[in-house]
Design a protein that fits this description.
Blueprint (H helix, E strand, L loop, with lengths): L1 H17 L7 H5 L28 E3 L7 E5 L12 E4 L3 E3 L3 E10 L4 E10 L7 E9 L4 E6 L4 E7 L6 H4 L4 H4 L1
Antiparallel strand pairs: 1-5, 2-3, 2-9, 3-4, 4-5, 5-6, 6-7, 7-8, 8-9
Length: 178
């Protein structure tokens, strides 16, 4: 039995250490431990679970840190903006000529990345808005790329109202942007 004991103990120690379990020392198994080696027949105590920091909670913020006003698709000059390429960033959301997305929740997911839960609806339809999540990646406070969970993506940049076509220049937007 002594030969089997001397072979089993080192194998057990290797197996336990490979599994990440607390191991008993050879002295403990051979009886040299305080208390006469009674530990040899007990199961090794499980390792204390490693404490992993909880996944950082995304900070909820009140508004995207973007300048409010007109945003035009990145590949369109501000002076050539149209209803199809222009959106208006307001205090409570963003929208164009046909749709509006109300920001319900904004979470900062990274230094320049925000997860936005928004309720979007067609302004020419009486259907209730659909809630979805988009990921906004900002380039400073005047440009963004938004990617929807539904697959669409758009990139736009801020255009001063004075640089927009005449119809937009004459429009007073201070009640929704201020």
């Amino acid at each position: 039995m002594s030969k089997a004991h001397s072979l089993v103990v080192p194998l057990l120690l290797v197996w336990l250490s490979a599994c990440g379990q607390n191991t008993v020392t050879a002295e403990t198994v051979s009886g040299d431990a305080p208390g006469g080696g009674a530990v040899a027949n007990e199961a090794a105590a499980p390792a204390a679970p490693e404490t992993t920091p909880a996944k950082a909670q995304a900070a909820t913020i009140a508004a995207l840190p973007l300048k409010r006003g007109y945003y035009v698709e990145s590949d369109t000059p501000c002076g050539q903006a149209s209803n199809a390429t222009t959106t208006l960033l307001r205090r409570e959301g963003i929208g164009g000529a046909r749709d509006f997305c109300e920001f319900k929740k904004i979470e900062q997911a990274g230094p320049d990345t925000y997860r936005v839960t928004e309720a979007c609806g067609d302004l020419q339809d009486n259907a209730p808005p659909e809630t979805s999540t988009s990921l906004y990646t900002l380039a400073g406070d005047t440009a963004f790329t938004a990617k929807s969970e539904h697959g669409w993506e758009r990139s736009a940049r801020y255009c001063a109202q004075s640089s927009m076509p005449p119809d937009w220049r004459a429009n007073d937007i201070s009640d929704v942007t201020g």
